[in-house]
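Quick illustration, no need to memorize.
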Amino acid sequence: MTISSSLTNRLFFAMALLAVMSIGAATYYATAAVTAQAEGELRRGVDEAGTLVEEYRTLLLEHFNREARLVADLPRFKATVELNDPPTLLPIARDYSQQLGADLLVVTNAQGTELARVAGGAGKGILQVVSVPILIDPRQPELLGTLSVGFSLDGRAAARFRAFTNSEIAFGTAGEVRASTLPESAWPALAAVLGSERLTDSVVIDGIDYIARTRQLAPSPHSAQPAAQEPPAFALILRSRTERLQFLSRVHRTVLLVAAAAVLIATLASYGIARTVTRPLGAVTAAMREMAATGDLTRRIPVSPGTQWEDEDARLLATTFNTMTGSISRFQREAAQRERLSSLGRLSTVIAHEVRNPLMIIKTSLHGLRRADVTKDQVAAAVKDIDEEVTRLNRIVSEVLDFARPIRFDKGATDINALCADAAKAAWPEDGGYVRLELAADLPPVLTDGERLRIALVNILTNARHAVSASADAKPGAVRVVTKQGADGRIVIAVQDRGVGIVADDLARIFDPFFTTRRTGTGLGLAITRNIIEGLGGTIAVSSTPSRGTDVVIDRPASALV
């Protein structure tokens, strides 16, 4: 039998090939479209950045023009200019220059003689100047002089422009770069394209490919120097194509990964569709294998209503198979019912045995109380016996009920150390020093059912007390209760005794219901304890060596921490 001889295989290969070709073509065209769009956005971004630079420069010129007019109209400033005394005017000019944040402030008189010049800390750059007349009275245009204020398109200005255009900026004039956000080693390469008005597709600087656009800066309309005499100034805006290509490379890798995942999903889907032809038979075969492996003879196969995709013979086989497993399931339910009745019989035997002894003691005590010559001491002894036996009966009933019914937990913040100390007192009420508490001081509170956990600890400590009492070497400190914080923040409670220990054959059965080695035990204490610990999300492990003692370790998950 060849691969092509199977209808399932032919359908699978045809659908998988179609999916691969479709996804491959879509990926190619999507990648090409993203690349073209990114290149277009890069070009538009350079043009928009150039427009922003020119608009911001114009805004600065208008700002300094307004500020200069306000200063020129100040009476104090006019009076100082009218004195025509440079030493008097210079401090005032410095003050106004600092207030305006200007890189240059020049004051001339009506004859054009310079009275004061204040140059700021501007570095190399292109100076942009606005000039306003200083008039005695705006209504009488008698000229006192001229106030010129300027700012420099230097490295600081280029850095500001880069901040809001997200582009590298350079300023220059007459084929020379005067300021730039790029290092001076790159300025010769920038000077080569500085005067070009067209878009430069590629400028390579230090291994980085840039796209560049040169914008000629319009002369200041408020400058005292005629526009024809001002050398043309240019702003060069650059954006990194290399950085964008790196981003596109990540996009392309992501697209390829998505395409690969889509191909995988499409292949799996093709295989799933092809398998619909043989799925019912496969389901029956798988169910039979699982029955053989697990021994679960109640396994059923879901049978959906007949469709054009389902084989009728396979559906009939599945229905017959389910009928057979239904019969097996009925037989298993009947066997389980018989087992429950057997367990009930064992439970009845335990209860009858455990209840009969206390009842006989109570009956004997009551018979003694009926005597006419009963003394006070005899009454007290009888009442004590009755009280002890009622407590014993109540314990038996509680253990049976706790084992038989589902446990409902009432969780809250619990101090594990205090809980261990309280359980030790309850299990070992006489103060003989037999229990040594080694409690971790830094143990955090735990979200748990404190009362249920206390019951479990009392059961464990009671068993430890019986084991130590039966040992010939019983002495103080024979039982240790240890708390600590384990790996990953888990809470560990360990109860260690040096009693008679448990033989290997009994150790494997200690959690079985009704199993006990004590004449007066019900065999439910450790079964209930394990139900409580596991119900609270923890684990319990027991190790023991005959004649040397037993260790019980309770491990609670870190998720239970408050």
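The first strand starts at residue 104 and ends at 109.
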